[in-house]
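Continuing from the previous page of notes. For each protein in this section, the sequence appears first, followed by its structure tokens. Read the first protein now.
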Amino acid sequence: MNKVLQATYLNGSLLLDEKLDTALEGKKLTLILVEDADIASQSEVDLEEHKRQFFEWSQQYAAKLPPDYKFDREEAHKR
């Protein structure tokens, strides 16, 4: 899952502007921090290029599934 969130850094902690899904509880997440001022000063074309590069980079962590793969929740819970 990829998601862009806003947060405020305060007293050594990040305070998210919205709550995360409870399914993420206890999971380790990787964060990429970009200061808002950096984004605001870039042109729309630069932002699109930045997004493209980020998603291109993130593909190395994506799992390749066979075309006929179907998720089975019951099977996953048996493990």
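Done with the first. The second protein uses the same format. Note its length before scrolling.
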Amino acid sequence: MIRKNAELTEKSIALPKGIRLHQVKSAELLPHTYIIESPSALQILLEPWSIGSRLANMARISSIDFLRAAYQICKELRDSSFETISEVVPLAGALYYSLAEAFAHVFGETINRCFVGARRHLTSTGWVTELSYENFEAMPSEPVILIGDTIATGGTIEGIVESTIKHSSDVRAIVIYSIAGGLVGAIRIKEMADALEIPTYLFYSNAIFGVEPNGTDMPWLHPGTIAIPETRAKAEAAYGPDLGRRWCSIWDWGDRAKHPLKHLRELSERCDTELESTDANETRLILKGIHDETNDAIEKWLSPLQLNV
């Protein structure tokens, strides 16, 4: 129902060619909820075999797209100096958003960085987030907080924000970017922001995904996924109607970023399993394409080191 009633309005701001920003208007979401049509982030979400330097470069470029848009949307960010902005990094997946490197590219300077170790695990009552490490030594006074992370149900980001508030009670704004963000998390973040009464901005790349009952998977063609028709069509062309409804758009971001071979082998095995169980020609053709790309990536990852001249 949220997807059906959500209104997407394109914002007229200055962005590089091929990048667009849509505001998502819904009573269940924060007023400042946006979808960035980022080509680099879209490749991440449509090419599950992309890992390593290619994944890192696409993530960094997508973070550049986010910062360019956020600067024009967030008054608090425009009113800040370098000294009053801090990134809070949820360890370890958020490291691979390369938000600090993107910030230096966009604004020509480095950024304050604080770190939170967060681990999400499943219990009998649902997903629970445990914070195992905190370092807020670089937190300035009256900060604008930047966070880049993959969000599904929103429990991890909620815990990180609550921890951040404890170390800085005068936060002026919270700006969040998610390459793969879930609608369940968006609703939860609105409830959190309403309680904190801190201006909060949510930016998602290319879609806000419906979340499966397992609290992890976020398929492109989930009934709750919010995306413009053009992007949805690209996703269906890449995955087909079957895999597009069943496969997670991001897979395990942590594995893709920090343990690429594990991710590739699991993806290859998944293709093998599905090829054995499906007779649908379209699905088989797509599976074979993904399988070939994945095995090529595995072969490259296992090849001997050579100097990149």
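What the second structure shows: The chain has a mean pLDDT of 94. The radius of gyration is 19 Å. We return to this in next week's lecture.
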